Amino acid sequence: MDINYLVSEIKNYYKEFEYDKLIVDYVFTLEGSYNFIITYKKNNDSVESEVSNKPIRNSVRKMAEKFEEYKNSSQRFNRIKIEINLDGTYSEKYWWDMGKEKQNLLNYAEVFYQWVNDRMMSMIFEFEKDNNLVPTQFDADGDLEYLSSWDSGVFTFHITERNEIEYNIVLSKDGQERVLQMPLKDYFMEGILEHHHITNTELSDEWKPWNTLILKSLHYDIPYDKRDEFVSYVE
Questions:
Q1: Which residues are registered as beta bridge partners of 29?
Q2: In this structure, which of 5, 56, 169, 203 has its CB flanked by the most CB atoms within 10 Å?
Q3: pTM of the model
Q4: What is the DSSP string of 110-143?
Q5: Residue 225 — very low, low, confident or very high, per pLDDT cuts 50/70/90?
Q6: What is the DSSP string of 13-35?
């Protein structure tokens, strides 16, 4: 990444206001997405740009490539600040913001149930389709159509003292319940165990201790504002 070229692109493009310094901030999430913020500073006043970076986005994205390159090394960073002076000279700073990392972890943990619900719906359909458990019909064009085999479900995942997952899948259709004996994918179990570890260690001051996750699924996305009705963490 040629930082000189990026600085030149930014300086030539952002000209909304007069400034003493042009402040460029990158704020990365754990997944690598980022906010790109331009601030004009003059004397003691600051104003944030509202102009899209689309015309120079290819250059702006180069820092995301650098983030990916270093994210698993001792040189990792999730914040970048570049200060550009009127004469084109600049300074740059890369650092790892622990507070930002923790907030990212918390943000992801708070919507983890959506990932669980989505993956479970996908795994159930795949498993039942492969085992001829999904009802079918032919549509008006004569094509085979798969119907839903369940209206709601309760998924229970218990983390044992040996750090293993015991689980139970109960599906309901027209008021009739059945237990589905289905193996879980390795990546899914790893995700559950990682969520358990992070929430019970790094997020322990924000998250109550738990060993059992119970998710009530309505076979569609769970609204965030109703999360407490459908998701329970039990110690």
A1: none
A2: 169
A3: 0.67
A4: HTHHHHHHHHHHHHHHHHHHHTT-S-EEE-TTS-
A5: confident
A6: H--SS--SEEEEEEEE-TTS-EE
